[in-house]
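We close this part of the discussion by returning to an individual protein. In the encoding step, the backbone of a single protein was reduced to a row of integers, each denoting a local shape. The sequence in question and its structure tokens are set out directly beneath this paragraph.
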Amino acid sequence: MTDKKAMDKLKGKAKEATGKVTGDRRKEAEGKSDQAKAKTEETLGATGDRAKGMKDSLTDDDR
């Protein structure tokens, strides 16, 4: 996980916790949304890495 994605996830958790403590449902929902966005970006990055690895292994000329 990159530092930006980790920070986005951490900010989302903090925002969600703040919303819960203060009773601000909107802030809580924003926090959950931020966490979901970071998780999605993380998953997409991992999928791209796997696809690149598969492509590299298929085009490898060390046969």
